[in-house]
Amino acid sequence: MNSHLPPPANCHLPTVNCPQPPLPPQHSLSVNNLHYRYPDGREALRGVSFAVGEGECVGLIGPNGAGKSTLLLHLNGILPERISGEPSVYVGGIPVTEENLPAIRRQVGLLFQDADDQLFCPTVFEDVAFGPQQFGLDEAKVRAALATVGLAGYEERSPQHLSRGEKRRVCLAGVLACDPQVLVLDEPTSDLDPRGKRELKALLRQIPATKLIASHDLELVVELCPRSLVLDGGVVVADGATRDLLNDAALMLQHGLERPHILQHWHPH
Ligand code: ADP
């Protein structure tokens, strides 16, 4: 249809019968002017705004104390403890409000910085099944998630007796078993050895969910995230192509970051 044609004479906008322009694609994650102050008065987020499209993999970088973990905890409503007022975070278009928390937690899988914070059951199977149990346990999904992370056969092992890398993969299996649309990862490679890092990166690459990855491991961010956000002082100070941001020496210096080794010999031509 020629969009320059005038509407038919009997069409008075708005009307359900007239063709409407297509809606813009839904963002998987949308954060609008998010502020947060801890109960002791410390202001950790001062008006954070950004959106992440479906299937995007976005890095979240910034110095210690920038507010990265605080931001991630808002994405499935762990913070604040009681949500009040106008919602600032939307997941798949659904506002993060008290009554939407069960739906939000199903959609957003959060991998904590410290695997030990996420593992508390006597066996690997029980730990991975803990999340899906909230939504009606699907044993097949638990086993499939363990197979995805390369831990088939670990079901009866104690999570406390696993290596750091294996613990992290158990946590990831627990998140994947809930089939999240959005994966939020806080320092996923911290305390992993080089092989553990390589395996985790390969694993994350295979997972089609929308991802937001907070990390000081800038090589991981370059390899996995075409786009990054730089957070500092509770504010997004830059949002753009990861390689452009990390090649901006002044920006890196100003926000306590460093151009990673992997980019030292990279030229944009
Ligand atoms: P990052 O993850 O970027 O290192 P955080 O989100 O952990 O940053 O911290 C942001 C700010 O909030 C820092 O100033 C930190 O000291 C403060 N903060 C973090 N957790 C708490 C807490 N539980 N109580 C009070 N202040 C906190």
Description:
This protein has 269 residues and is of the alpha/beta class. The chain contains nine helices and ten strands. The chain has helices spanning 68-74, 101-107, 124-134, 139-148, 164-176, 194-206, 218-224, 242-246, 249-254; strands at 27-37, 43-53, 57-61, 89-91, 94-95, 108-111, 182-186, 210-214, 227-232, 235-241. A six-stranded mixed beta sheet has the order 6-7-8-3-9-10, with helices on both faces. The protein has a four-stranded antiparallel beta sheet with strand order 2-1-4-5, covered by helices on one side. A hairpin with a 5-residue loop joins strand 1 (27-37) and strand 2 (43-53). The longest helix is centred in the middle third of the chain and has 13 residues, at 164-176. The radius of gyration is 21 Å and the shape is globular. The protein starts with 26 loop residues before the first strand and ends in a 15-residue tail after the last helix. The model is unreliable at 1-18 (pLDDT under 50). The chain binds adenosine-5'-diphosphate. Residues 38, 40, 42, 44, 62, 64-70 line the site of adenosine-5'-diphosphate.
Question: Which features would summarize this protein structure in a list?
Answer:
22% strand, 29% helix, binds adenosine-5'-diphosphate, globular, alpha/beta, 9 helices, 269 residues, four-stranded antiparallel sheet
Pattern of helices and strands = EEEHEEHEHHHEHEHEEHH
Unreliable stretches: 1-18
Class from secondary-structure proportions: alpha/beta
Number of strand segments:
10
Report the mean per-residue pLDDT as an integer: 89
Overall shape: it is globular
* Helical coverage, percent range: 25-40%
Total DSSP helices: 9
* % residues in beta strands: 15-25%
Provide the spatial order of strands within the biggest beta sheet: 6-7-8-3-9-10
Largest sheet: number of strands, sense, barrel closure: 6 strands, mixed
Radius of gyration: 21 Å
The set of bound ligands, ions and cofactors reads: adenosine-5'-diphosphate
N-to-C CA distance: 42 Å
